[in-house]
Amino acid sequence: MLREQINDVLKEAMKSKDKICVSTLRLINAAIKDRDIADRTKGGVDEEGITDDGILQLLQSMIKQRRDSIEAYKKGGRDELAAQEAQEIEIIERFLPEQLGEEEITAAVTSAIEAVGAESLKEMGAVMAKLREDFAGQMDFGKASAIVKQRLG
After folding, report:
1. What stretches of the chain show up as alpha helix (H) in DSSP?
2. What class has domain 102-152?
3. Among 80, 92, 101, 129, which lies 20 to 30 A Cα-Cα from 122?
């Protein structure tokens, strides 16, 4: 389970006194707990918390936030903060499966469109839901969304 893997790496990082790794992993655990609590109040989660797919989506959103921060820091001339964000991305990416390339994303979008039977932009949500179900944590859904729009538009 992904939670256990994150906690194991956290323990190793604490032993080796890797401050950035420890702080990043603690942020991941805090985000997971926040999502557990939010889902529990909605009644949408069992006692164990969010699933591994939910954690993968959470990790992807954390990476996206850090990439946005890197852009902002570089514009502001804060290269040291941009470098720290890049290190955090590397730590988070350890827990994600290998990411699909551009051609693989295009092929996945094509098969999802066929599977859903989508013919217009109105059905984009169904296509994206299918992609999230089949490829959680494996692709950049921003890129996939652009390809879906192009194909259905």
Report:
1. 2-16, 19-42, 52-75, 79-93, 102-116, 124-134, 141-152
2. mainly alpha
3. 101
Which residue's structure tokens are 């990439």? Answer: 67
**What are the sequence ranges of the domains in the chain?**
2-93, 102-152
User: For residues 18 and 120, what is the distance between their CA atoms, to the nearest angstrom?
Assistant: 50
- Per-residue pLDDT reduced to its tens digit, 50-65: 888 889 889 988 999 9
Fold that domain 2-93 belongs to in CATH:
Hypothetical Protein Yqey; Chain: A; domain1 (1.10.1510)
Handedness of CA 9, 11, 13, 15 (dihedral sign): negative
Query: In this structure, which long-range contacts are made by residues 32-38, counting pairs with CB atoms below 8 Å and at least 24 apart in sequence?
Result: 32/3, 32/6, 32/58
